[in-house]
Batch of 2 targets.
Target 1
Amino acid sequence: MSRFILRRLVQAVPTLFGIMLLTFLLTRLSPADPVDFIIGGSTDVTAEQREEIRESYGLNRPLPVQFVDWAWDMMRLDFGKSFYSHRPAIQLIAERIPNSLQLAVVGFVVALTIGIPLGVVAALARGSPADHGIRVLSVVLNAVPDFFLGLLFVLILGVQLRWFPIGSMNTIGTDCTLCWDRAWHMVGPVLLYANGGIATYPRYLRTEMLEILGQDFVRTARSKGLRERWVVLRHVLRNALIPIVSLFGGILTIVIGGSVVVEQIFTWPGLGRLLFEAANNKDYPVVQAAVIIGSVLLLASYILRDIAYAWVDPRIKVR
Amino acid sequence: MSRFAVVFITVVLVGAACASQTSQTPAPSVVDKPVAGGRIVDGFTSDIKTLQPVLSSDTASSGVWGWIYLSLTRNDPDTGEVVGRLAEKYELSADGLTLTYTLRDNLVWSDGTAFTGEDYKYTAEAVMRSKKTIRKGTFDNVAGAKDYADGKIDGISGIQVGNNGKTITIRFTKVFCPAVSQMGGAGAGGIIPKHMFSKYWDSKTTDTTKNIDDNTMNMEPAVSMGPFLFKEYKPGDHVTLVRNEKYYAGAPLIEEYYIKFYADSTAITNALKVGEVSYSGVDPKDYEELSKVDTLKGFRFPSFSNGYIGWNPNNPKAPWLASKEVRQALWYGLNVNQIIDKVIFGYGKPVFANTLPTMWAYDDTGLNKYAYDQKKAKDLLEKAGAKMGSDGVYRWTDGQPIKMKIETNSDSNTRTTILQIAQEQYAQIGVKIDPLLESFQALTERTRFSKPDWEGVILGIAYGTDPDPYGVWHSSQATSTGLNRVGWSKGDALITAQRDGPDCSQAARKRVIAQHDKLLNDEAPWTFLYNSDNLVFSNKQMQNFDPRPFSSGSAWNIEKWWIKR
């Protein structure tokens, strides 16, 4: 087992290096000069002052030197400072992660809570109107873009009917995390987060369950006289859910990158909006730090998942 | 679909249809006398970057610190002329080389410390020593400023504070006519408290490695003197300010000023409709719809920006653009009034040169108004040497068809629509346009002066309150990063004359600026499009809210605003 873990860790190193190189190149080689953004279109800045600004951010050095310095700083956990606020990038990211995580976790739980029963119903009532309905719902939810659903929610339930807030984490003047006001503000963004899961999990689970329902051990369980409910819960669902566990790693993906649409529509001050603004402003240190931290977390979650799988199923270690 | 779902969706849709936007009319108030208290919510479309004026370069940040830190002067809300604020008066010497400010009596910071000229001097020195500021240009002509920046002396010798801190005298090395409008903010725009910041950075040092750039108070100003004081910043969400009881013009009636960050202007429009935001600027497309909302009141006044199509006369692939007649033809061949009606819904006016109608230097006498005239456009093209081809496209003197790109940024509906209209209308005068849409970053990069491979670009520009055309039109700005992307240089002498004196009087400057505008209007390096209006809506409960053309950034009568309940 320890050799397996070591192997996975060693494999992660070149992956991370590749991500660092790609992140660096993508940010640096994109069009436009970050100094233009830093000076905000000012007409009073002379070429000499531009150069001073460029130098103060270390942007005048050759690209390979910048990369090596940046990579070295990263390894020492120095993520640099924002070009604009001059605050440490890690601090900006740390301020936003809890907000994004809150949505992602609750959204994931809601997706599971709705998606799993729908999958079970579809599998057990295969071919019935309920099964067809669930599959149609799945296709529709998958087909409608998230931003469209979000805007519908805001415009109809928020602006027209005023049943829900149109955005933000709390009512202005209220500041609480575990309270009714926060829960009320989370309804829209959480539903949007959960939409993808509600659209996907039932189909996923239905396929898994139908496959397991036809297997020998299920027939054996039934022939032993176990009640159908027990067979489904204990033997079929439990086995069908194992692959879904791997989706937990996806939460991190959502927190790091997939939250932009939800956070933009619902004015949620999370990491997605921070990344969106940082990318728009060419705030390299923030974009790079967020991508690298996200990648490390993601790689770590994949390694942990693989280890857990290997622990459960020793055959995986051999593959 | 289940019966429940059908019923639910029906209820939602019917409810949405029935819900009236005008149902929230405020109840008539029994008290019309100003009352203290309440909260104002202002919507921003982006987060702040810093609350340090010395470092700030974005409008969101200045929109917040503008309430916290003040300048010695400000602009008259209607005329834009410089008037005193913290300074009771100012005086520029007859030779234009000495500017003296006299401060008001009894000015104090929020902690009770006296505000003096030393605070001004400290702020100016912070600007000159900062490595990350964009504002050093203000002090180009101030004696000793460069030596101080280079660490040769321990203070800017050209700024002297006297009379117990009540007078500030600034000595210039040469005449600089826009000085009065530019010096009031000590280069930063807002003056910071020396007694607070000098704990972290002492300006009396020749060590140039030390500066104000990484000060912890840059995000959390503890002491200030604007109408509001900083209370809290929640990144990505809001900034809370509270009224300053020691504000020199009298404490505001509003208790709390809350700046809320929204994702975009549509989110702010929605927030206005539901009553979450107290006032905000809106897009032209939303003006009519919001006008129907009973709870809101609309305001319309000219902005400080215009839109234009810039023509590159240096592109060898489009040699016709070097011809004045062709550029004039391109102006005659575009129906600007139609653009104003269709694209900005009539909320703007055509402009014919650099100076905007709201600026004190505006004088349109003798300017060609380029009334839409296809025949005149064709005549001018032919006068320049072009000949009509059999395919309806003019041929230039070298035989190549007059065919070129016009590019703009794809994320602007306004500009992409202008491009569509231009493409259609130019086709009617025999000029073929290939539209090119790209990201704003790519657009500004591609259409720099140093890059010859572009022909026409649709962009906009925001001006300062002084009508000085230097930053956009002087040949020194035709660089790889300057705003004079078309490289026009024929107005240099006039630009210098209105900037460097010796006569800096408004009348003299106005005369020279008008000559520059006339030259620009005739040469047509840009097809000037329109000066759009600022459109603002406020909740009707806000009283004495009265935005004017020159009051942006710091509302001129904030101390009188109150909320009717």
Target 2
Amino acid sequence: MCYDHTTFFCPFCFPSAVRVGLFVTCLVDLLRPRIGFAALKLLEAAGCQVIVPATQTCCGQPGYNSGERPGAQGLALKLVEEFADCDYVVVPSGSCAGMIRAHYPELLQEFPARREAVERLCAKTYELADFLVRVAKLEAVPGRFAGTVTYHDACAGLRELGVKRQPRELLAKVPGLSLVELPGAEQCCGFGGTFAVKFGEISTRIVDRKCQAIEATGADAVVLGDLGCMLNIEGRLRRRGDRRTRVLHVAEVLAGVDGEL
Amino acid sequence: MQATSMYFKARAREKLRDERLQQALARLQTNFVDARARAIAELPDFEGFREAAAQIRERALADLDLYLEEFEKNATARGAEVHWAATHQEAARIVCEIARRHGVRKAVKSKSMVSEECDLNAALEAAGVEVVETDLGEYILQLAHEPPSHIVAPVVHKNKDEIATLFEHQHRRPRQSEIEALCREAREVLRPHFLTADMGISGANFLCAETGSTLIVTNEGNGRMVTTLPRVHVAITGIEKVVPTLEDLATLLRLLPRSATGQSITNYVTLSTGVKGEGDLDGPEHFHIVLVDAGRTALLGTALQPMLRCIRCGACMNHCPVYQSVGGHAYGWVYPGPMGSVLTPAYVGLENALDLPHAATLCNQCGVVCPVKIPLPELMRKLREKQMERGLRPWPERAALRAWAWLAQRPRAYAWATRLGARLLKRMAGEEGLLHRLPFGGGWTDGRDFPAPAGKTFRELYRSRGGS
Ligand code: SF4
């Protein structure tokens, strides 16, 4: 292996490209497909051969977090199968990647026959920005952005996967972009999946604080790595009457696809 | 204390609209959160201490019976009398019986959360004993007939003006407006009670098996008077508070005040070991220790066992976005915040606290700050699973989750349904790209818009671009 390429990525060290399975996530599939395409573009820019298993759906997080364990187990087992023959699995969502890495072992402990497969999946699953920085060591990004952005550390990516510096390092590579830190960036936005519907008023109060902090930075866009939290923040910003501040997925900014679709 | 946790949602709504409470909560957040951050930064290898503390607590729980027996033996050898209470009612009965035996007419108390669990004050008063709370916060709440709203700062929901008015009415003295003057006034009122009480009631932050001692940490000094001045001292606490050695206590003491109030140590750390000895100038003649089970042993060996490690520091609630928004009274029982979301259903019944395990975003801030590494979000998930298994959740919720799991396991049906959904939602949103009302999502759209889908799903677009 060559000096800088300690992973299996250097095309000079390993001529055949690595097979990366892209797990699009159900929210991206349904609501903002361009995040999926942005992830695709970034992975290709990093020299990966990207595979998108056609039968993929949901990682099981809604059921798992709501206590509907059997349904969540069914979906988890399905995902384990679907990505079995990829070298890596990359997810443009901290909470879905966290679901797989931090929770599948517990969720699937009643299936000892699958234990090895689950462990393998956990070890090769990465949140997108984390993968691009730590594994693919992406040098240059295709996107450009004229303006200021601020970054919100969505809870699962931050606390389940340790994603903190990775997106910031990548954003620093985007020509034209300047990053201002968000006060209280690590505080929850109040989304919490079904929490936002079950306890709408409490959730609104929490996201209000987030919106105030975002607006106070004066940034043109708030960038983050989880679509659920994006919907929550964008929804509240708009209801507060803010039509200006854009809410973008980190992949959209890095890939420069924030205008299309 | 009567659990009213069933009304979490309604209470939360009320609390969100209480402006004064909201201001108090904002203050609490900045004070305690910042202070903790500074205090743990001071400690070299905080994570090391945290791991050690978790292990100490886990070791004690693994052999709880042995440590409790050792505690009883050593406490008894020093003249204390140890009582065992299986339930809250039994605990209250035991304390009343102790009061009767010693002819007690007045008791002074220093806060014990367990006595709140047991409704001890009401029981004592019914038995003809006057009870005076002596922690400043608890005293204020006693005057106001309210339960605590935080386990470390029980009266955080009240501001200075409210307290001044309360004192003015209850003490019948000229109104004071400065905090120092209010404290002085409380001290003047309380002092005679310490001197005339026959019984002092305290809790225990820890029990030390090695020495048979109870330990309390306080900031006000009243704890020492309660445990030493009256001729009878009753310590009432949960059985899970035992730790093996004094050395272990030292480790836990490094974490407890830091996690709670951001202090490196509290003003007073009081170890009570046995009764007044011959030639001692002070100390109680009779020392009773009431060890309360009330649901604790039922958690041993279950997925909820880690909750018994809790050292009641309150860090989880200080850092919880939900607690920060609604305060402690919304939770409807003794323990608020994430710890309460686990403890309340565990102790008062899953069906009596339906909302609590769900009243969290699972952001895991609580798990990260907990000094004894209790995985609070995981425990809440466990409780959610149990509720689901027992069919306690509302049927539309169960049906929706099952339907989603069913659909998502059938990729073709799923692809078709999401295609339809994406188009429909886009159509509903119109030009603006925002939904102001969502079918079945009123909780969301009451306070937020919902950004509309792009109209085509990723899988559709991917296929049309030549992907598989
Ligand atoms: S659960 Fe942890 S953080 Fe919360 S009060 Fe108990 S020890 Fe403190």
